[in-house]
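Narrative of accomplishments. A recurring question from our advisory board has been how the design workflow behaves on a single, concrete structure rather than in aggregate. To address it, we present the structure tokens for one chain from the evaluation set, followed by the sequence designed for it. No filtering or post-editing was applied between the two.
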């Protein structure tokens, strides 16, 4: 905690008081979990935020770890349109890694610091009710197996937990009424949960600094971007690849009621706190008069 506070002056620390009892949903990216220094700083940041009375919900990914375990078990890693093709054998590994390994390890590390963290799967008490995701390619339906999309969130469960000062640590595994498990994109899960809770902030921790106007020029990092600019930059190809679905998630979170969305470079120490108090990262905003959109291309 003391090391964390070295990054913040007294006046800045006092700024966090205005967020007391507000909800922060944090998406913790799988690609930064193997960085021990960044993970330690992340846990320190969560400890500080909780000490100020902020109510925290964490949704984690785990793509690199899943890929590692699929390779160990001789199962091919296959992606279509950025989504992992998930047959029944792959789904078994996905659930084992996300809910059994990553989720419990992260929850345990938080609890070691005295935080009331609870690791749960999206299957627990129908937290993430889902259905099979239908993906099209040139009008043809692609069968990606047990890749799911969210139907609803058990808001009552989350509200009960955070009102009793617990920190839910959620693995993005969904389920349907027939009991099928689904692999849910962690960005989508965090955005849907954030919107459902009408959270004060959705902080998306990833392995990039934010959105660049010119991807080859780091000095063009944008401190903020609005929905219309996202649409325009996507058409121009400035926003491309994996950043497109990430931006769609951010927009959907705002449209569902999240007040602020921030893209944060999780590789940098204490970027979580610095994104709140400085221009670190990129803030996604909704300008007056902007219309909601589900797709930006």
């Amino acid at each position: 905690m003391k090391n964390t506070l070295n990054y913040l002056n007294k006046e800045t620390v006092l700024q966090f008081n205005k967020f007391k009892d507000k909800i922060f949903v944090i998406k913790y990216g799988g690609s930064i979990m193997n960085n021990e220094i960044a993970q330690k700083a992340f846990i320190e940041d969560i400890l500080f935020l909780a000490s100020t009375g902020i109510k925290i919900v964490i949704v984690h990914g785990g793509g690199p770890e899943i890929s590692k375990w699929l390779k160990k078990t001789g199962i091919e890693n296959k992606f279509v349109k950025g989504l992992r093709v998930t047959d029944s054998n792959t789904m078994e590994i996905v659930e084992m890694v996300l809910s059994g390994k990553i989720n419990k390890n992260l929850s345990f590390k938080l609890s070691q610091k005295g935080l009331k963290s609870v690791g749960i799967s999206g299957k627990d008490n129908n937290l993430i009710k889902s259905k099979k995701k239908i993906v099209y390619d040139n009008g043809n339906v692609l069968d990606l197996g047990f890749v799911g999309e969210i139907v609803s969130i058990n808001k009552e469960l989350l509200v009960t937990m955070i009102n009793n000062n617990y920190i839910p640590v959620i693995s993005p595994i969904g389920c349907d009424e027939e009991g099928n498990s689904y692999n849910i994109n962690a960005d989508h899960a965090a955005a849907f949960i954030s919107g459902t809770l009408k959270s004060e902030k959705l902080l998306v921790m990833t392995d990039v600094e934010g959105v660049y106007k010119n991807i080859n020029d780091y000095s063009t990092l944008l401190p903020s971007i609005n929905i219309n600019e996202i649409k325009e930059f996507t058409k121009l190809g400035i926003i491309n690849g994996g950043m497109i679905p990430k931006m769609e998630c951010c927009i959907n979170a705002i449209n569902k009621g999240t007040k602020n969305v921030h893209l944060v470079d999780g590789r940098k120490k204490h970027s979580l706190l610095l994104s709140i108090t400085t221009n670190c990262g990129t803030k996604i905003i909704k300008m007056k008069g902007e219309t909601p959109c589900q797709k930006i291309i």
